[in-house]
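Form P-L/3: holo structure prediction, ligand nickel (II) ion.
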Amino acid sequence: MVYPIVVYGDPVLRKRASDLTPGTDLKQLVSDMFETMEAAKGIGLAAPQIGKPVRLFVVDATGLEDEVGLESFRKTFVNPVLLDEFDAPWDFEEGCLSIPNIRELVNRKSRLRIRYFDETWREYTEEYDGMKARIIQHEYDHIEGKLFIDYLSPLKKRLLKGKLADITKGDVETEYRILAPLRK
Ligand code: NI
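OUTPUT (holo model):
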């Protein structure tokens, strides 16, 4: 099932999401999240973006052909804990399905260590760098109630105010179905 994507202004995007109960059957939810992400042509999707305040996100960067090493980067992260972020910070232009048509440079550290479960509740502790780390950091922020625009300067934020207000009203062009909190 393809869910509509919850957009900027909805309080679910600002909540710290809750852990899932270990052992919960996640098959349907995970399958729906991949389907929703694919329909929206996203490379990552966190559960709050479909209105569910739980600590789960999916990533699929296998379509980013020009990026070496991403061919098999299709994964589910359940109850993740970001253990450490380190190494040289770098800028990358990020976007978000919940903040359509806005892209801005965000500075993040280049490596991280994360502990998480997959959809079958197998536990992993792994290190990621480059684009993989970047995608994980962005999605991890979602389950902490954080958005990439939170990293922008006060001036940049002021400049985006009007566009963000329009998104909250559903006054934005997207190729996927959205759920806008103030749509009339
Ligand atoms: Ni996002």
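COMMENT: Helices lie at 27-39, 130-143, 154-168.
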